[in-house]
Amino acid sequence: MPELPEVEVTRRRIAEPLRGATVGGVRLGKPLRWPLGCAPQSLVGLELGAASRRGKYLWLPLLRPQAPGAGDPRPPRDARVVDAEPQPAGCLAEPEARDAGGLLLHLGMSGSLALHAGDDAPASGPHDHFDLVTSRGTLRLTDPRRFGAVVWSASQGSGAAGRLLASLGHEPFDEALTAEFLHAALRRRRAPIKQVLLAGDLVVGAGNIYACEALFAAGIHPGLRADRVSRPRVARLLAALRETMARALELGGSTLRDFRDPHGVDGL
Questions:
Q1: Active-site option among 3, 6, 47, 213
Q2: Whether the Cβ atoms of residue 91 and residue 101 lie closer than 8 Å to each other
Q3: In the chain, what are the domains?
Q4: What's the pLDDT score for residue 42?
Q5: Which of 212, 216, 179, 218 is nearest to 198 (CA)?
Q6: Residue 2 catalytic?
Q7: How many CB atoms lie within 10 A of CB 9?
Q8: Contact between 204 and 171 (Cβ < 8 Å)
């Protein structure tokens, strides 16, 4: 499963190229984990803001154009929308508002995003389940196992996005995440320490790869009960988790079978 470093690498690769791009079409393939939550054609003509990340989720803000002629050229009125999945007719906020919500993306167990510049996007394959066609290229989600998702929400704090993000814990590099805080939180958990890390409600972004790496580096058995991890060991664990993720970010993420960045480049 793509973990925090892989998702952050993806965000960095797509944020600037897509910022200010105009949506010209949407293609939906087979149903993903959750429905899109809005009519695909309602996204046509909107602009993309700067992509952000929360845990293993990406957020693509959607904006209504400020004025005719501002930003990238508007797509043609007959921009192609292919929808293989029934959607509700309306989804966007008040028509006069600049903010038009956003798309929350999750890569699932085996998903990856590719950004194809201009008109260079190849024909979609059997595992390509979402295309966002823009004035700067096509953003494509490839997800063989279909545990990923693209969901529209009015904001990160409402609708499907609000429900999915509400239970997430601290970001690994958050200054508020201290060894003292983590130790106190772990003392209330009787589950194995690896299981607690994977849950994501204390610290986000660590899946099987980075949880195991950090525990090994800190000298902690994955099956040790969380409430029995001493404060010095918790401090070592937090440092190891940060070091492991920082190294993974530097190397472009981890590649087992499926992950590649939006330019098609493997990680470590």
A1: 3
A2: yes
A3: 4-165 (3.20.190.10), 179-250 (1.10.8.50)
A4: 96
A5: 212
A6: yes
A7: 24
A8: yes
